[in-house]
Design goal:
Length: 395
């Protein structure tokens, strides 16, 4: 007959068997009974339609978890079966947890995006306006990457008046998120007009520091405007949504934040030409107005009035003399006519040889008006003859 063993011995044997047999298991199930402990450990269960198994993920592994575990979430777990001897219970100690059908980073991105959106981090109303002409820009990026050189080149060509202040920052790796946060806080204390936070392109893992919540908090709490310039145009990071402005690339951040000096040169040339034309037009108008005023002044001056009166007097004099002239000419013509009539009426000039004045009762009559037996008087200056008409012949 076999000897009985203690409960502890049995549990110890089970522990040894299970932990040596199920060293590296890969299992899929749905999360339930989830607890995030203050110690940093995570306790939960996974289940399917028929069974449940307890799980634990200790702090050392939990800190590498990119997404937030949620009840009802379907996951795949890599881990080891462990037995807690005092209770005789076993559980799955998780070393790695991945969401089923979706990458951990993609899920973590969506979870954090939804969380921050609910907190109002993406609200357009809270975003700060970029200054039109920044004098100093803080660049929170790596001092050795291509991004800093691209930004310097674009800034020099676009607006050489700006001063770029580099804040050397780790932008890749597990500790980079802390360095980015400290650099943002430091840059926010400087006398700069805005911050550009970013780096060049890379994989989602390389860019992940800009998807961390503490980086989002630092950007959100920054008092100065922030441009997020991470990766390429197709890359969208949490920092892009939280920042005041998203730039497709680091170079694009300089294009967004700085005015184009060539456009301003053209504008100044056009402005100068327009101003010159406006001044010319204004001066020409004022010159015309001045000439008109001078003419008006001349017209209303004493000299003009005297000249006007003098001209009027001259006109009146000419008119008066013309009237007098016409009057005297008329009188002269009348006098000449009277003289001519007088000359014609002069008896000495009126009668010629063979001619005598014919009258009846001292009234001059025409020969054609005489009748037979009329008593007429024939008169010359020296002789008067009384006659009787005895015969009249008409021709």
């Amino acid at each position: 007959m076999n000897s009985a063993i203690s409960v502890s011995t049995l549990n110890t044997q089970i522990k040894s068997l299970l932990e040596t047999t199920f060293i590296n298991v890969y299992v899929e199930g749905e999360i339930s009974n989830l607890t995030y402990h203050n110690s940093g450990h995570i306790y939960f269960s996974i289940k399917d339609e028929n069974s449940t198994i307890s799980c634990v993920m200790f702090k050392g592994n939990a800190k590498y978890l990119k997404f937030q575990l949620e009840v009802g979430q379907k996951v795949t777990i890599t881990g080891t079966i462990t037995v807690y001897t005092p209770r005789g219970s076993y559980q799955l100690m998780c070393t790695k947890v991945e969401p089923s059908g979706q990458g951990a980073l993609a899920l973590a991105f969506e979870q954090l995006k939804a969380k921050l959106q609910a907190k109002g981090y993406f609200e357009q109303e809270r975003k700060k306006k970029l200054p039109s002409y920044p004098k100093k820009i803080a660049l929170v990026t790596s001092p050795t990457g291509a991004a800093i050189e691209d930004m310097k080149k674009v800034a020099t060509n676009r607006w050489p008046l700006v001063e770029l202040i580099l804040i050397p920052t780790l932008v890749q790796g597990e500790s980079s998120k802390f360095d980015i946060v400290e650099s943002i806080k430091y840059a926010d204390r400087l006398e700069v007009d805005l911050l550009v936070v970013g780096r060049g392109g890379g994989s989602i893992e390389d860019l992940w520091a800009f998807n961390e919540e503490i980086v989002a908090d630092a950007i959100y709490n920054c008092e100065k405007p922030v441009i997020s310039a991470v990766g390429h145009e197709i890359d969208f990071l949490i920092s892009d949504f939280v920042a005041d402005v998203r730039a497709a690339t680091p170079s694009n951040a300089m294009e967004i934040s700085l005015p184009d000096i060539n456009e301003h040169r053209i504008y100044l040339d056009n402005f100068s030409t327009d101003l010159e034309n406006r001044l010319k037009n204004l001066l020409n108008k004022k010159e015309v107005d001045l000439k008109n005023m001078y003419k008006l002044f001349e017209q209303n001056s004493l000299d003009s009035k005297f000249n006007f009166i003098s001209e009027q007097i001259k006109v009146l004099k000419e008119r008066y003399f013309n009237i007098l002239k016409n009057y005297f000419q008329n009188k002269q013509s009348r006098l000449d006519l009277l003289k001519e009539q007088l000359k014609l009426s002069n008896p000495d000039n009126k009668y010629k040889n063979g001619y005598a004045q014919l009258s009846i009762d001292n009234k001059i009559v025409n020969l054609e008006n005489l009748d037979l037996n009329d008593k007429v008087t024939l008169q010359t200056p020296k002789t008067i003859a009384l006659c009787t008409i005895e015969d009249i012949k008409k021709q």
